[in-house]
Amino acid sequence: MGQLFGGGALIAISLFMLVGFFNAGPMSAGASIATLLLVVGLPAGAGIALIRGHYSSTRGFAQRKDDLRRQTQESEVLQLAQEHKGRLTVVEVATRLALPMPTVEALLGGLHERGMAEIEITDAGLIVYTFRDIQLLPGKGESKDVLNA
């Protein structure tokens, strides 16, 4: 909010200076251009930059908020997958996490696109998302050094 107020104040100052510039006495062309740029252009440019910064940071905040929400939901999906031995359906996720079906489909689709889940289909036509890494977690106690594998 401070950026918005400061930007508006700088633009108001530049407009005030513009009125003063027009009421000033005669000057040479070079002095007129330099004065105009310095007393009008500089505050106006800084004011516009502050206002743009305010609105771009607001959009950035909203994007970060959406990213955090998606990451939290993906984490909950992975925890649920662990409870279900690495196999989930859209309905299971939607009912357990109380999310709308399109949101769940987008979450599971995103996990599939990044290679974290595979899509399988049952004979009855049910789509099942399989998380191979989660299915292999019980074997982590048998891990070996990479050079000894």
Please state the overall shape, judged from the principal axes of the Cα atoms. elongated
Q: Report strand order across the widest sheet.
A: 1-3-2
Number of helices: 5
Largest sheet: 3 strands, antiparallel
Task: Count all strands and give the number.
Answer: 3
Count of individual domains = 2
Mean pLDDT: 89
Low-confidence stretches: none
Describe the structure.
With 149 residues, the protein is mainly α. It folds into two domains: 67 residues; 59 residues, Arc Repressor Mutant, subunit A (Orthogonal Bundle), CATH 1.10.10.10. The chain is 68% helix and 7% strand. The protein has five helices and three strands. A three-stranded antiparallel sheet has the order 1-3-2. Helix 1 runs antiparallel to helix 2. The longest helix has 55 residues. The two termini are 58 Å apart. 11% of the residues are buried. The model has no long low-confidence stretch (mean pLDDT 89).
Short description:
This protein is mainly alpha-helical and 149 residues long.
List the helices and strands and how they pair.
Layout: H1 2-23, H2 29-83, E1 87-88, H3 90-97, H4 101-113, E2 118-121, E3 127-130, H5 132-135
Antiparallel strand pairs: 1-3, 2-3
Characteristics:
149 residues; mainly alpha; Arc Repressor Mutant, subunit A; three-stranded antiparallel beta sheet; 5 helices; 68% helix; elongated
